[in-house]
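Final report, Chapter 2: Outcomes

The project's central promise was a pipeline that accepts a single protein chain and returns its three-dimensional structure in a standardized token representation, suitable for archiving and comparison. That pipeline is now operational. To close this chapter, we reproduce one record exactly as it appears in the project archive, with the input sequence first and the structure output second.
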Amino acid sequence: MPAILAFTDTIFLSLKFFIPLLVLLKFSKVSIKAIDIKTLINATNWLLLLAGSIYLIVLTSEIFIAYYSQNEYEQYAVSNKIFGPYWFEFAIQAFVYMLLPQMMWFKKVRTSVIATIIWGLFTYILTAFIFYAEHAGYIAGFNPATTWLNYLKSLTIFISLLSIVYFILLKQDRYFYKKTTA
């Protein structure tokens, strides 16, 4: 399960970098003819929905596994994560990474750039709150080279996934456009 959570964290981390660029592309006067902005927004929101759904399944299964394992330590660890002194961190993660992306099931929300901006703002504000609450003014073991390599790896995976989803959606849009005009 840690590998799956790392995959979803990669998508969420990259979306935090990509959403401001998407907003600049959407609202600037610059016109890039090779990129269909509506399809790019739709692809971004599909990735957000995918990562949110995977995150929801993994964390729910973690709760069930801990409950049915009859392992006292595992049950305590999960209950402490949810109800312990850092309960607000779990609540914020559940809201931003699991509940907010589920709104993307509605087509009107999924095709809206405003929904993407709202998710991005919630993510920036609430993760900053979590970071400062956890670290309380100190960062132990911070290594900028490792951090930038992780960002680079995350962005590479994200751009690959976004390209795949973008071209699939673009192909579907062109297919349905040809079908309705013929």
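Archive annotation: Residues 10 and 33 are 29 Å apart (CA to CA).
This record, like all others produced under the grant, will remain available to the consortium after the project formally closes.
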